[in-house]
Write a structure and sequence with these properties.
Blueprint: H1 2-6, E1 10-11, E2 18-19, H2 22-32, E3 37-39, E4 48-50, H3 54-58, H4 61-77, H5 85-94
Antiparallel strand pairs: 1-2, 3-4
């Protein structure tokens, strides 16, 4: 087969799927692979979470406590902060 003979065989380090081009592998690794790790968007949480387990992480006690701390911190600052808490929470929870 031409692809196997003349093109690179690149393996995804997360799921071990094989690709014949760097572009295909990078797109897969950054956007498609269910096993890729993503940073939790909550400012108090620095945890790397597998993309497919992000919903479980968001419901974990650790994340829920961090979310409550975030809400309390930003609600106490009130007018001192120009950011809209609802908007920030929406951004965090959507990503």
């Amino acid at each position: 087969d031409h692809l196997q003979e003349y093109h690179a065989d690149i393996e995804c380090g997360n799921c071990y799927e094989h690709f014949f081009s760097i572009n295909s592998m990078e797109e897969h690794a950054e956007e498609i692979c269910e096993y890729r790790c993503v940073q939790c968007k909550l400012p108090s949480c620095n945890e790397l979470v597998k993309w497919r387990e992000l919903a479980i992480h968001n419901l974990s006690n650790q994340h829920q406590i961090g979310l409550l701390q975030f809400i309390v911190q930003y609600s106490r600052q009130g007018d001192q902060r120009s950011h809209n808490v609802d908007e920030e929470l929406r951004n965090i929870l959507q990503n």
